[in-house]
Amino acid sequence: MTTTAQQMSSLPSGLGIFTTLPDLFFIPELVFGGLVWILVASTNVYMANPQGWVMFVSVFCFVFTFLWLLLFIMGVNKNSSMWASLDVAYHALAAFFYLSASVALAYVTTALGVTNLGNEILFKYYQEDIAAVVFSYIATLLYAIHAVMSACRWKSL
């Protein structure tokens, strides 16, 4: 087996994670997840609002994605073959969490937009919620793509 074939048959580590396709999504996931976290944290909570769930999902995924990235950079994933399956499982769970948070936030944002468009301050929060919904769906898409590509990589190992 050549060194190129050996490198392709294992998970990358160190700065090599920035050269493989599924792992290139770590940085955009952190950026868009952080934007969701910031935007939701900056708005007011009205009525029965799912922003607590959205905050939990964005903070959980941000922290664990950052830790996952650090583990890959440190090369901890070289010690066992289970890391590929854990990578798929984590990113699939994160995509599911973000999808549930995105749908709930979009529903409440739509309801708030219909009832509070006359108030200028509430309209500002409504616009921030719209941005949070958009970024949340982008984060969902990034995590889903990462999960699918990680599953393809896992299958090829």
Category from helices, strands and their pairing: mainly alpha
Ends apart, CA distance between termini = 14 Å
Q: What is the count of structural domains?
A: 1
Mean pLDDT: 80
Biggest sheet overview: none
Number of strands: 0
Secondary-structure element sequence?
HHHHH
Shape: elongated
Strand content: under 5%
Determine the number of helices (DSSP H or I, runs of at least 4 residues).
Answer: 5
Helical residue percent?
Answer: over 70%
Low-confidence stretches: 1-9
Radius of gyration: 18 Å
Subcellular location: Membrane
Pfam families: MARVEL
Transmembrane segments: 21-40, 52-76, 88-110, 130-152
Membrane topology: Multi-pass membrane protein
Can you characterise this structure?
The structure is a single chain. The protein has helices at 3-8, 26-41, 51-74, 83-115, 120-156. With 157 residues, it is mainly alpha-helical. The radius of gyration is 18 Å and the shape is elongated. α2 runs antiparallel to α5. The chain has one domain (20-156). The model is unreliable at 1-9 (pLDDT under 50). GO terms for molecular function: structural constituent of myelin sheath. It is found in: Membrane.
